[in-house]
Amino acid sequence: MSLLEITNATLKFGGVVAVNDLSLSVEEGEVYAIVGPNGAGKSTVFNLISRFYEPFSGQIMFDGQNLLDRRADAVADLGIARTFQNIELFDHATVLQNLLVGRHRHRRTNMIEEMLFTPRVRREEKKHREAVERVIDFLDLQPYRNKMIAGLPYGVRKVVELGRALASDPRLLLLDEPASGLSVEETQDMRWWIDDIRKQMGITVLMVEHDMGLVSGVSDRVLALADGAKLAEGTPAEVQSDPAVIAAYLGTGAA
Amino acid sequence: MRIHFKTSYEHDIRLFPDWWSFFVYAALVAVAVILPWLLDDFFLGEVTNVLIWAIAGLGLMLLTGQTGQASLGHAAFLAIGCYSCIIGMENGLPFLLAFPLAGVITGIFGTLFSIPAVRLHGIYLAIATIALSVLADDIIVLLEPWTDGVSGKFAPMITIFGIEIERWTTPDRFYWLVLAVTILCTLFYRNLLRAPLGRAFAAVRDSEVSATAMGVHIAFTKAAAFGLSCAITGLAGALMGFYAGAFNNETFSIVISISLLMMIVIGGLGSIHGAFFGAIVIAFLPQALSMATDTIGGMIGGGNVAIPGLESGVFGAILILFILFEPMGIYGRWLKIRTWFELFPFARKDMFKRQKSYLKTERLR
């Protein structure tokens, strides 16, 4: 059984069909990339999985559980973490605090205990901080640990957002354009991290990305999307040489 | 500059980052405890007033500074706290029971108010909370059998284990009571900040979309913020009632709500220090102004002159100046001064310049 399975999902905004009868399945342990021109519905697919949008029809299953039964804030409990295309960090908090919010799904204490800061809260806090420190170590974020997000450069924010998602110990990681706005070197770093996330941490990655170098470098399977519908699916090389994909990106030349 | 070399997770969690700051705050508390022997009754009363405002400020800070929900209705919650504590005591409850109960009752009202409030954002929430402030006045009049309406109520004597506490006859005891409540509220607030709920508050403030994606239940978190904020405000309201001695439907007017919000903006949004700094300004400014007009009036030979609207004019001017030149409030300014000294001579002028924020993902709702 696939880890994530979307079956015949359709979403319309007024007359615009953002996602059209789309089916895809992501296997446990793979890196699955979605590519496509702007407005193809890639981010919309992510927002469907995050339950920010309600599909018109179709089904989304995660590890045998129906995602559509859950509220948006209960999706994280299943072990699905995500990043955003335009970076949605908590600007007026430090890097450390941002990563600790990523631990929210592991919160075991209630409001009263936290107000009194009981020994249990203290123990839990230490566990959270241990987990966060592992992420900081993995992503080399040590120099920024206590810095406010508001003062950090774009590239670092991108990494912090990845860190926040990783801090939640996810099973499925959704990366919305992890390399957008990054320099060549930073993109290279991102590539190794995605590789390590999959191989060392055993986390399944589903990503949307425009940088074909990165996509063909890390992903096992690629889905090409145009106008909300599946254009081609297969290994990076297969998708890149698919005539329909080339037509969608470059036009057919027949005019 | 003090460098914190951290060797355990405990370093990140504990209340004070190092011994130095522990001693600073310990010294501050020690001075606060012996203050009744250092000041005369008038100034002790003024300091008590500052502390009561600071508690109310902490309450609003939790909601507005921490969770990002503006409220112009907190005078209503002050009133609920005040009336429920004193009505409780009139019905035979001891202070030690009636006082926390007042906090709980106000907290429950706050949580109930959060049900419509979670659907409102920004300016719309501010408008809805103004309605609350306006309504409170009328509701107090309507509930005359309990509240005695326009004729108002008198605060009874507080008795804790046989010790009598009253604002005029034993100002020192009343001061210590207020100080104890202040320290407790500050401690609770501080504890929340280093725990998951406090971070969830900040997450809701900065980005509801990604807070949701991280598993934060927005409505519950906002309800918790409203509940806690109003509970603390209710405690402050009860103390305000005892401080004033007598109060009626006009005591907790919308002006109090506005002053509260102004106070935390001037003090510095989002910080505990800000609530205290703001309280000092709000509570001392009227006294400072009346002293100033007395002195100036004496100098020009006019005796005691009263200038109508002077207080609100000066308050407004201060608020405008802060928003223009120091949006981070007094605490923000204090941080800058401290950093300048710590880094001397390496501080640069642009160090605190705020960076333009990047484009946010379009709102999904």
Structural class of chain B: mainly alpha
Oligomeric status of the shown chains? Answer: heterodimer
Question: Could you give the order of the helices and strands of chain A?
Answer: EEEHEEEHHHHEHEHEEHH
Low-pLDDT windows of residues of chain B: 355-365
Q: Strands across the major sheet of chain B, in which order?
A: 1-4
Largest sheet of chain A: 6 strands, mixed
> How do the helices and strands follow one another from N- to C-terminus of chain B?
HHHHHHHEEEHHHHEHHHH
How many strand segments of chain A? 10
- What is the CATH T-level topology of the largest domain in chain A? Rossmann fold
Classify the secondary structure makeup of chain A into a structural class. Answer: alpha/beta
By CATH reckoning, the class of the largest domain in chain A would read Alpha Beta
**Would you identify the regions of chain A where 5 or more consecutive residues have pLDDT less than 50?**
none
Fourth CATH level, the homologous superfamily of the largest domain in chain A: P-loop containing nucleotide triphosphate hydrolases
Overall geometry of chain A comes to globular
Broad shape of chain B: globular
- CA-to-CA gap between the ends of chain B? 45 Å
Radius of gyration of chain B: 22 Å
Number of strands of chain B: 4
H/I helix tally of chain A: 9
In the CATH classification, which architecture of the largest domain in chain A applies? 3-Layer(aba) Sandwich
